[in-house]
């Protein structure tokens, strides 16, 4: 008994380990809990060892120029975009006319733009379009009904690119374009696999947009804008579906829909380049931030986001035409 007691006293003390996550993250919860736990354990005379959070796998292993490959079926490895002027020559009334049917007997419901009854004149109070406020029209694809006065006002407040998006169901009429500033998009294959896609290599996309001055289509024309975090590296699996997503992203880039100028949701900075509702994976070797792999739903989700911008497989045919 005495020998057993002696051996137990001489045995090395096992140090409890308290994992601390998000040491540099935005959430103070885990570090706070770990700190409280450490204080309590120290007060009880127990040694404490805090482990560091796992390293973020933001970047792939180094890749030499000789290892970079072009993507089969996709011409070139770089796409530049310049500032494109909105289509001109047609009045808003002429543009909307091809998407609408006149309604002689409006339904007994509200116009979802001005929230007045369709049977009453439009309640829009801004700059007055050259359309009578009591005219009502139905969009030909989705069938939603609005005051013509309200639709013209909505078009005038948008990008005025010859397209229209139904404010009720988001159906797009025409070809939607955005206000993305000029920049460059590079794309190629690197010889490394993403987590969850061990059977293929990786498509790397590099976006680069420099700071500049806002144009008339931006929130504050004539004012400078910043472009933080560029070049931005993004990743897709080099699979059949991954290449499909890339082809559609190229259409989105040409239509100036991937980025916009606005207020950053992470920093609160205004007049800066921000993502425009098409999510990208910017973390290569893990998914600790939610912007990496594995993510079995990502490719389907981004295809749905592209479709919401009017970019589908039909768009690829349109671009060839």
Radius of gyration: 28 Å
Low-confidence stretches: 5-13, 15-34
Q: How many extended strands?
A: 15
**Into which percentage range does the β-strand content fall?**
15-25%
Helix percent reads 10-25%
**How many structural domains in the coordinates?**
2
Structural class computed from helices and strand pairing: alpha+beta
Overall geometry comes to elongated
Question: What's the N-to-C terminus distance?
Answer: 91 Å
In this structure, how is the largest beta sheet organized?
Answer: 4 strands, antiparallel
What series of H and E elements makes up the topology?
A: HEHEEHEEEHEEEEEEEHEEHH
What is the overall pLDDT average? 84
Oligomer: single chain
Count of separate DSSP helical elements: 7
Kindly list the characteristics that best describe this protein.
single chain; 321 residues; alpha+beta; Enolase-like, domain 1; Herpes Virus-1; 4-stranded antiparallel sheet; 7 helices; 23% helix
Description:
By secondary structure, the protein is of the alpha+beta class. It has helices spanning 2-10, 29-43, 92-97, 148-156, 240-254, 298-308, 313-320; strands spanning 17-19, 49-51, 78-81, 100-102, 136-139, 145-147, 164-165, 172-173, 183-190, 202-208, 212-213, 224-225, 232-237, 259-262, 272-275. It is built from 7 helices and 15 strands. The strands form 6 sheets. It has a 4-stranded antiparallel sheet, with helices on one face. A 3-stranded antiparallel sheet has the order 4-5-6. α5 runs parallel beside α6 and α5 packs across α7. The longest helix has 15 residues, at 29-43.
